């Protein structure tokens, strides 16, 4: 008999409890393991080009670790997985549990289809140190506020990394080729994908984690880990990161652990409130306060292209275009600008991020957008409106981040780069501001007041 390891968002061999179970099952009958990845048409069609290209590289890296034996099949998992189980004479299919709305639905459907074929879908572990739904208050209810969640999450604790699988045989079956990616060729330069590259980058970053607390808000210093991409694809598990952090005690490691707790909190919120993927958890504005489509569309276009005339916002959006990643502090500023200066609903910005980010993840993306938009459970209050100039001066104090991403402004030295409109001679090729921040801030606050008055 064989067993199947169905890889989804766990594209790694080490510290993968579901894979350990698949290997154990196979060893019990002297069989081998099929490593399967299903190219789910409904997800493939919806994913942005940068993410698809990264996935392709990550699958290549995984297959290389498996001696080229990763089996890739296209189609609906509820049909493909039972078919592969039949071909391989497998009695069990092993997976890490999914908690997002689509993943839960897909797994329920696939489990039923497998059951009909006499095959069991076994879940072990998840993409989180503590699976969503486990951390509950004393009264047994989910947490709505981050800080008590983090305390309870730390108290709950997590298992040690699971280690590597014992020697086993990967069973070879025919694979489908990946569908062509519609790539206009202007996409981001991708970082190296795969478990090995992720581990190497993380080990290097551990030396810098001591400075995380001081430098993490500075996009000009590039002082964060970039590990979000590897976490999104499961090239590394957060349990591994949390375990390694114990070797570098101090404020840096504490802050880093706290950021990982945000990741777990958002997954938990989405698990308990799946509608948060599309709908505001707390509506804060009257419906008529958003820009009408004919205004919103050009605004959204200028924002996405990094041509709003606000250098810090444009630097962030151009980093996204060129790297498929953006610094976290800048993500907050650009999101606030879209919602509160351009009056475009958060869902449209979130959709653009899902299209462009290599780390795009429904729980992290949608809940962070809701945090900025003031519509989340534990969100920044709506009336906290980021000033795009002051944010730039504070977190990019010498303007190096702006000069890096906005070449039209490279000749302006120091902080003056955040306000090019103050110069006697406006820089060539750089747009004028598309809105006046002070005026739009007032529009937003007036709408907020109107909502509060009912
Ligand atoms: C509007 C908006 C959209 C976002 N969309 C995503 C997304 O789609 N996918 C995603 O992984 N993160 C998202 N984030 C969260 C955060 O910006 C990124 O996780 C972080 O910037 C990634 O860079 P890093 O790995 O260098 O982070 P580091 O600063 O090195 O942090 C380490 C890890 O902690 C976690 N983390 C840090 N900040 C947050 C946060 N605010 N929320 C949840 N987890 C966090 C991430 O897993 C991150 O990799 C978004 C934030 C905002 C404001």
UniProtKB/TrEMBL annotation:
The keyword Flavoprotein applies. PROSITE patterns: PHR_CRY_ALPHA_BETA. Its cofactor is FAD. Transmembrane segments: none annotated. One of its GO terms (molecular function) is deoxyribodipyrimidine photo-lyase activity. FAD binds at residues 212, 224-228, 256, 359-361. Binds 1 FAD per subunit. GO terms for biological process: response to light stimulus. It holds the Pfam family DNA_photolyase. Residues 1-129 form the Photolyase/cryptochrome alpha/beta domain. The record marks 290, 346, 369 as: Electron transfer via tryptophanyl radical. It comes from the Bacteria. InterPro entries: Crypto/Photolyase_FAD-like_sf (IPR036134), Crypto/Photolyase_N_sf (IPR036155), Cryptochr/Photolyase_FAD-bd (IPR005101), Cryptochrome/DNA_photolyase_1 (IPR002081), DNA_photolyase_N (IPR006050), Rossmann-like_a/b/a_fold (IPR014729). Keywords: Chromophore, FAD, Flavoprotein, Lyase. PANTHER family: CRYPTOCHROME, CRYPTOCHROME CIRCADIAN CLOCK 5 ISOFORM X1. Belongs to the DNA photolyase family. This is Deoxyribodipyrimidine photo-lyase type I. It comes from Sanguibacter antarcticus.
């Amino acid at each position: 008999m064989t067993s199947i390891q169905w890889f989804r968002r766990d594209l790694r061999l080490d510290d993968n409890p579901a894979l350990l179970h698949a290997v154990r099952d196979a060893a019990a009958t002297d069989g081998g393991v099929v490593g399967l990845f299903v190219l789910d048409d409904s997800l493939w069609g919806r994913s942005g080009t940068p993410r698809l290209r990264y996935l392709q590289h990550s699958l290549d890296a995984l297959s290389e670790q498996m001696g080229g034996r990763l089996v890739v099949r296209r189609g609906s998992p509820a049909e493909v997985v039972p078919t592969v189980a039949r071909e391989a004479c497998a009695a069990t299919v092993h997976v890490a549990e999914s908690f997002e709305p689509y993943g839960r639905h897909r797994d329920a459907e696939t489990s039923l289809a497998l059951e009909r074929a006499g095959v069991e879908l076994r879940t072990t572990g998840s993409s989180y140190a503590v699976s969503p739904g486990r951390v509950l208050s004393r009264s047994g209810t989910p947490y709505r506020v981050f800080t008590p969640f983090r305390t309870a999450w730390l108290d709950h604790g997590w298992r040690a990394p699971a280690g590597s699988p014992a020697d086993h045989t990967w069973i070879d079956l025919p694979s489908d080729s990946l569908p062509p990616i519609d790539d206009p060729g202007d996409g981001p330069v991708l970082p190296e994908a795969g478990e090995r590259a992720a581990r190497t980058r993380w080990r290097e970053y551990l030396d810098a984690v001591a400075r995380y607390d001081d430098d993490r808000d500075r996009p000009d210093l590039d002082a964060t880990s970039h590990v979000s991409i590897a976490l999104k694809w499961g090239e590394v598990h957060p349990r591994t990161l949390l375990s390694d952090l114990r070797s570098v005690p101090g404020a840096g490691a504490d802050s880093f652990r706290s950021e990982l707790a945000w990741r777990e909190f958002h997954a938990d919120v989405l698990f308990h409130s799946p509608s948060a993927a599309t709908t505001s958890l707390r509506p804060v504005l009257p419906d008529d306060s958003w820009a009408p489509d004919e205004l919103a569309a050009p605004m959204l276009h200028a924002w996405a292209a990094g041509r709003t005339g606000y250098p810090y916002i444009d630097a962030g959006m151009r980093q996204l275009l060129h790297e498929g990643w953006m610094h976290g502090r800048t993500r907050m500023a650009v999101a606030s600008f879209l919602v509160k200066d351009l009056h475009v609903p958060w869902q449209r910005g979130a959709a653009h991020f899902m299209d462009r980010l290599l780390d795009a993840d429904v729980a992290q993306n949608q809940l962070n957008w809701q945090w900025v938009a003031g519509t989340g459970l534990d969100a920044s209050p709506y009336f906290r409106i980021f000033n795009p100039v002051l944010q730039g001066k504070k977190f990019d104090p010498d303007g190096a981040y702006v000069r890096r991403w906005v070449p039209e402004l490279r000749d302006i030295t120091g902080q003056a780069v955040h306000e090019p409109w103050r110069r006697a001679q406006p820089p060539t090729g750089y747009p004028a501001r598309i809105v006046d921040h002070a005026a739009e801030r007032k529009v937003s606050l007036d709408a907020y007041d109107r909502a509060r008055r009912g």
